[in-house]
Amino acid sequence: MPGYGRRFFRACLPCAGIPTRGIIYPSFACRLDRQLNPINGRIVAHQHLQFLPAGERTNSTGKAIKNRILLSIPDSEYRCIRPHLEFVDLPHHLKLHEPHQSMQFAHFLNEGLISLVVVLNGGKTVEAGIVGREGFVGIPAIAGLSRSPLLEVMQIAGDGFRVPASALRDILRSAPELNRLLQRYAVILGLQVAQTAGCNRLHGIEQRLARWLLMAQDRVDSEILPLTHDFLATMLGTDRPSVTLAAGILQKNQIIEYNRGAVRILNRGELEKVACECYAIIQQYSDVNELSPSLTQS
Ligand SMILES: [Zn+2]
Fold first, then answer.
1. Ligand 1 geometric centre to CA of 271 (Å)
2. 204-275 has which CATH code?
3. Which residues lie near ion ligand 1 (Cβ < 5 Å)?
4. How far apart are CA 108 and CA 161, in angstroms?
5. Ligand 1: centre distance to CA 189 (Å)
6. Cα-to-centroid distance, 155 and ligand 1 (Å)
7. What distance in angstroms lies between residue 289's CA and the mean position of ligand 1's atoms?
8. Helix, strand or coil for residue 201?
9. CATH 3.30.420.40 for the 75-199 domain, yes or no
10. Which of 11, 105, 106, 184 is most buried, taking the most CB atoms under 10 A from its CB?
11. Do 75-199 and 204-275 have matching folds?
């Protein structure tokens, strides 16, 4: 996925076969995350990462798994959750969870993009966070909560898997690595939500629009994003004319192209220059398996 800190990763040749945290995952593609001292070129930190290529696992009906958390857990834990993974098509605007309603399922995306949306009295909305195949939604359910005030809605159509919340809670009792990854993701998503709150309050619409487009592209892995100005205005907590103006500036500078309800990113490098600092901060904390060692080691 673009923008996920790939510069840190190398093939794990020197350390192949060394157990990670005392656990050996023989079937996993092992990679070494190493950070080099820019002066002497020595490794200053490294950790092993394990995940399978997209599609290497399937659910019980043969649907390929692309969700990165489900590709990251040991085989023994995957066998526990596999029978509960129900494949679901997720069309645009499908509501996965309504505010304050009982939360029945957690969802793990293969494709598409979910928005977590704050809905206020009178119908005004603002986006609090986004989730793609790097994460999951249903965090309150795994924490023993049955409801949440946030709306979970598909903003870019896709597909994925749903798991009954009660089944997931049972599985987690005997799946420590899955439990660890879901808890880590819950924290990461909380940081994204907090940064988004600050961004919506303090940064300009052009910066926010650039930040949002970059985050969306990271999660759907496509240069074309099916989005309308009305949708973007809702998600950015502003009005349509403001989005049209900001998008017009980006289009005039040949950074994006907007056409018939879709945004094409023409120049990602320039878009990163326009985005506020929030993009880089959120990007650091996006993937449970690709955090920089400086964030995970004392
Ligand atoms: Zn910002």
1. 13
2. 1.10.10.10
3. 199, 203, 276, 278
4. 5
5. 16
6. 20
7. 24
8. helix
9. no
10. 106
11. no
In the chain the first and final C-alpha atoms are separated, in Å, by: 27
Contact 256, 264 (CB under 8 A): yes
Ligand 1 centroid to Cα of residue 82, in Å, is: 38
Give the whole-number percent of the chain exceeding pLDDT 70: 82
Res 21: pLDDT:
35
Q: What is the pLDDT of residues 132-146, one digit of tens each?
A: 999 999 999 888 898
pLDDT digits (tens, 9 = 90+) for 18-69: 333 333 332 333 334 444 444 444 444 444 445 677 778 999 999 999 999 9
Give 53-65 pLDDT, tens digit per residue: 777 899 999 999 9
Flag whether the pTM goes above 0.85: no
**Cα 78 to ligand 1 centroid, rounded to whole Å:** 37
Q: How far is the CA of 55 from the centre of ligand 1 (A)?
A: 35
> For the chain, what are the domain ranges?
6-50, 75-199, 204-275
The token pair that represents 280 in the structure block: 């880089």
